[in-house]
Amino acid sequence: MLHILFFILKTIGIILISILGILLILALIVLFVPIRYQVEAKKYEDIQGYVKVHWILRILYFRLKYEKEKIQYQFRIFGFIIKDSHRPEKIKSQKSKRVKKTKSKRKHSKEIKRSKKVAKIEKGENKHTALDIRNNEGLDIRENEEKSNVSSENEEQNKNIQGNNEKTKSIRENDIKDYQKKTNLENKKISIWEKLRSKVYNFYQKIKNIIAKIQTFFNRLKLKLIELNLTRESIIYRFHLIKTFLTDEINKAGIKKIWLSIKKITRHIFPKRVEANIHFGTGDPCSTGQVLGVISLTYHLYQKSVKIIPDFNEEILEGHINAKGRIRLFTLAIICIKLLLDKNFKQLLKSYQELKEEL
């Protein structure tokens, strides 16, 4: 029994070790095998561009192409196409055809159903039309007799209502005239002193409102001046905090470390091989010379592999560029780990958080 148990444990251990070994190998492959890229661009009559990225014998492969104002791309894993710019058009066309077929079938079936319903309705109507005509004739005679009786009764009622309305109108007119006479007499009784009193009161209210507006204006002005003073003080305080943050020696060292790590990353990512032949001109000799002076600063990086031909007379830009490079994740990871473990960088992060809270 123990022998079997040890054998099982041994096999489990071997399996676990093999899995760990495979994972370790995969991790090392991911870290050490570089991602290679190639960029190519041309401009003569038309603009053309080409970008290619692949990793581990093209297990992962991506291609982007720009030609004749069209972008084409393709992404593959182990040779199998995952995404392709040509595929969606085919799929869309097939889907549209299927949708059209289904729609046409549905329309045809609906039309057949409608025609059947119409035929049934027409048959039923033909049977019932004769009976409806006979019944309608008898009903019309009865309705005419009832209408004649109702109309005579309505005429008598309308006459009585009109007589009552005329009486009520005459009474209302007399009441309105009496009320108007009374109001006119009351208005005449208002004295001149009361009119003067109302005018004086209105004038007093106007002056009071003007004084209140002046007071509110000065109060607002005072508040704005206080706010401006506070904002000025806060700006000065914030400026002082930022200045102390930047002038601190530890923070300076941390910023320097960040700058150096960024330089290392860009140097690593930057293409290792560049071939270019560029013919350019701005149309102005002065500006062409200035551009050439800026480009000459990077001459030490590529030297003979890059050819730049300036044209001081015409405005022109043509040529081709071919660049190749690689990105190794291991080197990027080392640069980032060194930066994170740096004491000055840690202190910089702490001081930055404090500054952020104070601001």
Automatic annotation (TrEMBL):
<feature type="compositionally biased region" description="Basic residues">
    <location>
        <begin position="93"/>
        <end position="118"/>
    </location>
</feature>
<feature type="region of interest" description="Disordered">
    <location>
        <begin position="91"/>
        <end position="119"/>
    </location>
</feature>
<keyword id="KW-0812">Transmembrane</keyword>
<dbReference type="InterPro" id="IPR021338">
    <property type="entry name" value="DUF2953"/>
</dbReference>
<keyword id="KW-1133">Transmembrane helix</keyword>
<feature type="compositionally biased region" description="Basic and acidic residues">
    <location>
        <begin position="132"/>
        <end position="148"/>
    </location>
</feature>
<dbReference type="Pfam" id="PF11167">
    <property type="entry name" value="DUF2953"/>
</dbReference>
<feature type="region of interest" description="Disordered">
    <location>
        <begin position="132"/>
        <end position="173"/>
    </location>
</feature>
<keyword id="KW-0472">Membrane</keyword>
<protein>
    <submittedName>
        <fullName>DUF2953 family protein</fullName>
    </submittedName>
</protein>
<feature type="transmembrane region" description="Helical">
    <location>
        <begin position="12"/>
        <end position="33"/>
    </location>
</feature>
